[in-house]
Amino acid sequence: xxxxxxxxREQAYQVLDGEVGQDLLTAMQPQQIEGLAFWEIGxxxxxxxxxxxxxxxxxxxxTLRTTPNPAHIAAFQALGANPTPMPFAxxxxxxxxxxxxxxxxxxxxxxxxNLYSVQEHLSLTAHAYTAAPLIMNKQTFDSLAPELxxxxxxxxxxxxxxxxQLNHDNEQGDLAFLEEQGMQVVRxxxxxxxxxxxxxxxxxxxxxxxxSELLDRIDTALAR
Length: 224
Description:
The protein is α/β, with parallel strands linked by helices. The protein is built from ten helices and six strands; from the N terminus they run ααβαβαβαβαβααβαα. The protein has helices spanning 9-16, 19-26, 56-59, 70-78, 91-96, 107-112, 138-142, 146-180, 191-210, 213-223, and strands at 33-48, 63-66, 82-85, 102-105, 121-137, 184-186. The radius of gyration is 19 Å and the shape is globular. It starts with 8 loop residues before the first helix and ends with a helix.
C-alpha cells in the first residue's frame, strides 16, 4: 500500500542495507545525527472491532488510527477508510471507547500493547514496513577514533541482523497468542485488491510533492 512497497523482509533489507539505505542514514548528519543501521518494527497489519477484512472493500467505512505519515493517510483514504492520526499512547482508550474502529501495527505491538483485548479482528495485510533507525549523537561519534567509528558501525549492522531475526522468529508465537485470546485472524487477505486501489494514486501524490528520485532508486534496487 505504500508508494514503493517491498513484499518481503528480504526486499526491505536489500533496500535498507544497500546504497539507498546508506544514503538515508547519511542524510541525517546535517541534523547532528549519525545513522548507524536500520533495525525494524516490522510489517504493519490491520485490526478492527467491526468485521473481518479479507479484501479492499472490507476496509471501506472503517475509522482507523494511523500514524501522521501522509502516505499512510492517503493510502487508507484511497481504500475508503477514515484515517485518524493520533499518538500511540492514546490508542488503547480510543479503541476501547470505539472512538476509532481499528488500527494498524505489527503483531508484536498488537500483543505487547494488549490491543487484542479491545479488537476482535486481525488481518495480515502487511501493507507497510516500518524501520527503526539506530542513531547516535554525531558530535560524540566524530570525537571517536576512526577505528572505533568503524567498529561501532559494524556492530550496529550485526545487531540489526540479530534484532530482525528475533522479531521474525517471535512472529508466529505472537500470532498464536493473539488467536488464543480470541482474535479472529485472516492470514491471507486479498492484498492485490488493496494495492490496486492504492499504489497509483498514493505514488502520484508522493511524487508530486517530493519528486520520484527516491522511489525510482528503490524500484531499481528491488529489480536487481
